[in-house]
Amino acid sequence: EELAAALAWLGEATLSSGDITQATLCFAESTKTWDQLLTPDTERRDWLFQAALVRQQLAKSHLLQDEAPQALTALEASSAILMELCEWDPKNAEWSRALALNALHAGRSLMAQDMPGPAAEKFNQATAALEDLMTLEPNNRDLVYQCAAARIIRGESRLIIQDLPQARADGEHAATLLAQLVTSRESADDAQGDSGGGTQGGPSASDPLLATWRARAALLLAVGVPKGVVESQVREALGHLAPHRENCPDPRFQG
């Protein structure tokens, strides 16, 4: 169990350092290790959940390498596990959220394989599920972050198929969520700084990956507007990214 968890952690750390190939190998080995653990004990729900999560990580690394079919295969296996878990406990928000995120990444994989119709279904499914969960946990910063990301990814897919008004609407919604997230995080950090307490989840205001989502939302707001507004939105996007350009090798940022 510790080996499987360590391999997944190493994969994430390696990915953040810019080595997608090695990260993919780590996630694949973690997947194999969880499967070996589950062979004699298929009822361990905590292990099943971890096996599903590491397949989601593996899929995301495949997407970064333009390996959409492999990503979709990993996501389908992950979702099969999560659907079984959700049948056991439909009220488990953590399992439901992971399943919604799988739908989001499946949409990305389908778009990469030039299947916009099925991709749109997945994006709509993921966005609706995440936002339903957010209504139950409005102060969950990680969930707010993921809702914003889902809106941005769906908006970018709508941009590709020339659905400009809806693409911009997704960008506006995401930008609002991200601005609220940054403000609430800064307020929480200020309130707890003197006591040394931790914050309540979500990325820090200076997180480079948060900067990428804010930049992507800003670019969606440049859709279907006058040239002067486009230039303003591009400058805003670059402003979010500029502080991290020299010190963030993570391919999710560099892309």
Report a brief summary of the structure:
The chain is built from 11 helices and no strands.
* Shape estimate: globular
Low-confidence parts: 194-199
Question: Which class of secondary structure composition applies to the elements?
Answer: mainly alpha
* Count of extended strands: 0
Q: Please indicate the percent range of residues in DSSP E strands (runs of 2 or more).
A: under 5%
Radius of gyration using CA atoms only: 19 Å
So how many helices? 11
Oligomerization state of this entry? single chain
What does this entry look like structurally?
By secondary structure, this protein is mainly alpha-helical. The protein contains eleven helices and no strands. It has helices spanning 2-16, 20-38, 45-64, 68-88, 93-112, 116-136, 141-160, 164-193, 208-220, 227-241, 251-254. Helix 3 runs antiparallel to helix 4 (68-88) and helix 9 (208-220) runs antiparallel to helix 10 (227-241). The longest helix is centred in the last third of the chain and has 30 residues, at 164-193. The two termini are 33 Å apart. Mean pLDDT is 89; it is low at 194-199.
